[in-house]
């Protein structure tokens, strides 16, 4: 591979947990090699003038289902049961590998356009998802989603999991890695979860699982096992710092202590939890206890977009009103959730989540000479509370420019939109 | 005035309460004169090709304070008291007529870019607000905001109100009209409110007032008058179908009955109510009782934008999660809130709020060949749940094109941004 470098000149750098500073950033191949005021043009093969731009780490979306972008708008304003049984599951039965590829590309386009560079996905037809992530230029932790209630199904699901991980882990120049994913405590058995823990230890792969999204599933687990979901998972020996638990809405005090004790990582999905009327996760409280809570959009069928900038605003507004506390989840904390906490959640904080020398060049530039960023007194506030994502102008992942001045370089979006309309016709005609 | 006509050809028309249809729309001067499939190019002076565009009525933002766009980002994550006492009021003391003009222009730019054509504002320095609304090409119901606890102040405030209404009502080709605005029950006296009711009757002008935004103000009114705010307003003879009550968060069953009985119009401001941790208004319930609830953004200091498309999503998500009911406030209802209910709230539903022959041409075109609107199965869903407002390409108010293909025709936005930065320096240097 030919060596190449990019100089981002005179950017206003907003890093999680730090004051804003103005500086220039040099990228060598896939790595941030220098941050300094003294960098000059001849240091780089390509120069990006970032005057009037805000430079942030690319967002890390820690729970989503990319393929579901193809199902966007097919079921809204329905109770969770009806939504799953009468809408999503019948439609999902029509999702082929080709259709999942298109849905995933559509999702990647949406994420790149709103500054997300890394995502965490669990679904089926995951080979197609991996291909879409590779083709889009993004970074992804991907997992085949296991649902099994008996030994025979578990065997089949182990095979599916192993096929996926062995084929795709550490591919696409290291941008695609794999996790192991039991769907949820209520859609698996203790045997499934024990196998997952063992396989995770052996392969050194994180575990991605839905936990306690709805009141009903918590009640079901309590009825089945006589304890709440995180208590059940603890008892199985399942928990650890490599577990990424999505949703975690309904939690007892004891469960919060368990999450903290095992350093379980959480993915908070506020828009989806609100749209499906699942409930409100005690995020502000858990962050104050030192638990790593990150941010995810969930799939586009229950959000209905994958825009992390919108998700930040929704997350903080929800905590404030739910806790009757305007100081809850302030802007700097939700920005951390969407960046460095995302990196920690995926076990990638040595590589991504902030603009620092030695880290991968996963970056995003926003145009702040815009209405949402005016007056320019507080870019962090404007990013969280005012912006809706349209100011993202340039997105870089692994040192590659995926979008420059709002032009996608990696994918032809009009072509993908046309493919998506075709795919949707196929899905709906079969329904 | 020279006669002129615009033909919007082959639009996908989304009207509140109606199925989507494809048709063409002819505008003669300021009025929608014909909607038909048979309209041809020679019918009009100007033709807009709306193939691949969604045509909707311009949004009606029923509670905002335009000038506050200049204060955006100056105070976040603060309790309401601290926010008002230590941040907003000291800054507001520095707001001159010139600064309010710039802030209001900034607000108008943001609204035009996100498809809002009509707004309802109450504040001070209202001459500047009226000038900004006139210059921007938007439609606005504007009011000087009365705060008074004694007769002498009331006299001064009556003078200010009369000066404003006599100078600005029915100006700017009828785009600017005026209301009478007591700030709130807790910032006025019975005498103030009685004068407002009399003046409103005499001048035939609507009344714009904050009511029951926070728990504390409800408690204060109960302590002062021995009854809750809407009970107090009823007893004063203040209520009527021309009253626009903003916020209306904390309501008893009896107050909801009173609101219904007098056909009081409400402006729901979910983002602001969440950000200031004020609470959740029982909007879904009130709509089901037949109360006219519309949508407002409040000012940019407590939102922090004036984007009605984002406000629709936040409104519906909040009702769903708060009521634990995913069917609460469905997409079609929140779209009605943001359009036709807005028009009803301002007493303008004979003129605006839907795409119908005989109404004013206050319209918005969105580009639906975009990621947020793909796949194109359900434009209403995508508008509410997926879009973030960046797809608005053309905004028309009173038959004038204010933005075409994302280019503002009425205002030079870069010039306004520069003016806003200057104004902000002045405000902060005085603080």
Structural overview:
Two copies of one chain form a homodimer. With 431 residues, chain A is of the alpha/beta class. The first copy, chain A, has a domain at 5-58 and 351-408: Urease, subunit C, domain 1. Chain A has 15 helices and 18 strands. The model of chain A has no long low-confidence stretch (mean pLDDT 96). At the A-B interface, helix 2, helix 9, helix 11, helix 14 and helix 15 of A face helix 2, helix 9, helix 11, helix 14 and helix 15 of B.
CATH architecture of the domain at 5-58 and 351-408 in chain A: Roll
SSE class of chain A: alpha/beta
Q: How many alpha or pi helices of chain A?
A: 15
Shape of chain A: globular
Radius of gyration of chain A in whole Å, from Cα? Answer: 21 Å
User: N-to-C terminal Cα separation of chain A, in Å?
Assistant: 47 Å
The count of DSSP E runs of length 2 or more, i.e. the number of strands of chain A, is 18
| Uncertain stretches of chain A | none
Q: What proportion strand of chain A?
A: 15-25%
CATH structural class of the domain at 5-58 and 351-408 in chain A: Mainly Beta
The CATH topology of the domain at 5-58 and 351-408 in chain A comes to Urease, subunit C, domain 1
Average pLDDT of chain A works out at: 96
The largest interface is:
A-B, 70 and 70 residues
């Amino acid at each position: 591979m030919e060596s190449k470098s990019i100089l981002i000149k005179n950017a206003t750098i907003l890093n999680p947990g730090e004051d804003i500073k103005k500086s220039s950033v040099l990228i060598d191949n896939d790595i941030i090699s220098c941050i300094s005021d003294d960098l000059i043009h001849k240091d780089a093969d390509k120069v990006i003038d970032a005057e009037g731009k805000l430079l942030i780490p690319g967002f890390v979306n820690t729970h989503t289902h990319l393929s579901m972008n193809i199902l966007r708008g097919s079921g809204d304003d329905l109770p969770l049961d009806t939504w799953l049984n009468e809408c999503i599951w019948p439609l999902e039965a029509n999702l082929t590998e080709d259709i999942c590829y298109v849905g995933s590309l559509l999702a990647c386009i949406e994420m790149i356009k709103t500054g997300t560079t890394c995502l965490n996905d669990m679904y089926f037809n995951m080979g197609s998802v991996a291909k879409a992530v590779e083709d889009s230029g993004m970074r992804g932790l991907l997992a085949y989603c296991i649902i099994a209630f008996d030994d025979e199904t578990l065997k089949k699901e182990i095979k599916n999991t192993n096929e996926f991980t062995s084929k795709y882990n550490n591919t696409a120049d290291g941008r695609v890695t794999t996790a192991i994913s039991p769907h949820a405590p209520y859609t698996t058995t203790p045997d499934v979860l024990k196998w997952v823990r063992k396989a995770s230890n052996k392969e050194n792969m994180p575990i991605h699982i839905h936990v306690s999204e709805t009141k009903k599933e918590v009640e079901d687990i309590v009825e089945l096992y006589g304890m709440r979901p995180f208590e059940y998972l603890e008892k199985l020996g399942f928990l650890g710092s490599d577990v990424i638990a999505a949703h975690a809405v309904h939690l007892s005090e004891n469960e919060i202590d368990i999450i903290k004790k095992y350093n379980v990582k959480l993915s908070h999905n506020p828009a989806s939890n609100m749209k499906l009327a699942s409930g409100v996760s005690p995020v502000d409280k858990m962050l104050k206890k030192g638990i790593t809570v990150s941010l995810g959009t969930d799939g586009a069928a229950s959000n209905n977009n994958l825009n992390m900038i919108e998700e930040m605003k929704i997350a903080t507004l929800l905590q404030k009103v739910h806790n009757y506390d305007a100081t809850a989840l302030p802007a700097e904390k939700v920005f951390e959730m969407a960046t460095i906490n995302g990196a920690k959640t995926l076990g990638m904080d040595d590589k991504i989540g902030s603009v620092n020398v030695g880290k991968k060049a996963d970056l995003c530039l926003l145009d702040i000479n815009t209405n949402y960023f005016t007056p320019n007194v507080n870019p962090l506030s404007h990013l969280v509370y005012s912006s809706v994502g349209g100011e993202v102008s340039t997105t870089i992942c692994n040192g590659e420019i995926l979008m420059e001045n709002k032009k996608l370089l990696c994918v032809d979006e009009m072509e993908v939109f046309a493919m998506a309309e075709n795919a949707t016709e196929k899905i709906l005609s079969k329904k």
